[in-house]
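Q: Could you fold this chain for me?
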Amino acid sequence: MNARSSLLRWLGAPLPAALLGISLLGWARSASAEESLASKLFEEGRTLIVAGRFAEACPKLEESQRLEPRLGTKLNVAFCHERIGKLAAAWLGFQEAVITARREGDVAREEFAKSRIETLEPRVPWLRVRVATGVDAEQLTVLVDGAPLAPSAWGKELPMDPGEHALIAAQVGEEYWRTTVALGESQHVDISVPTPAPSATALPPNAARSAAPHAAAAEATSPPATDSSEVGSFVYEVGAFVGLVVVDTAASSEPEEDPASIQSATVNSEGMNERLSCSSASCEYSSLGSTTGLLAGVTGYVGYTVAPRVSLGARLLLGSRIEGGSLIAFGPSASFSLRERLHVGPTILLGTASHAAAGSVFIQSPTSSSTVDARLRGSLGFSMGVAAEIDYTVFSNPSGSVVLQATPLFLYGHSGMAYSLPLGAAYRWN
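A: Sure. Below is the predicted structure, expressed as structure tokens.
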């Protein structure tokens, strides 16, 4: 009796046949239960998406896709990731959906996924981690959000979700460098990992077990992007500020009130009482000279990205001097991203500044004269000057960032000069 006939006889026996049937039935029930759970999770996720509760919908759709991978679920997961700002996850998900749809011959879904990729690609942030040439890859470990970055991905741009990301470098298991980079939409940021220092701190034992979903997947599923995708985007900025302003007017001032209301009672050369007024007599107003006051106002910037990390546009500053007076200045401006959190740039200003303070008025008629006190205003008239933008990013989200801002400026006109140091905060949309 050969082995085959022995096996057939064993399978035909009552007990083995029953055991095999029970095993197959258990497997079928398990598969059916998983399929049922996957369908239930999918329906719950879709209901949450319709209700706009995307943060709750994404985990249900992800679990449904894990239990029962389907093209439709994959598209819904990518769409959900897009709506909660996980742009890199969504971009990679739609790329995978294109491959699956092409394999299944689903032209409509393939075209839909391609259209979402075209929309998302200009918005996805990219991070390039540079490591010095000659560093031993077996000795050095680079972690992005806690997950090791493959040496083959060093120096390549990786798609990342907007927000803050932690980078750690370790040599032979010992951490010697770490930093945090904040990525906004469309940003391309390069980070250079320094060479190891002699002293090092032990790397947290659980750091290598954390997950970084996009850095590792980028190399396998997407080609490196170029900085040209960032060029062509607009940047908008609106903020508020307070600060000191110094206005120095050398020429005569003008009264803040109606000149006719500036009056003085005096005795003329003929011994008669006479009431003098700037409406009927000649008046000279004293110069206010230099005054320092508190300035509060708003600032705005509209720019167009002409090169990676460089935008050109126009900046506006409108301020009111608390003690009286104002500042208006605008002009062409440039903004440069020096580091992941720091922006600087110059502005050529056109505008004016004014101030108000107590002064004296000399009233003179043919028969008498008098000096009275009045509130006067001095102005630079048409002025030109320069300003410097200094922005430091303190918080980022998918649509933009909150920055602390300083805009020191100087104006010079035919009637004097003004300089100010406004300090404030602004929101910058990418």
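A (continued): The helical segments are 3-12, 14-50, 54-67, 71-83, 87-104, 107-120, 215-221.
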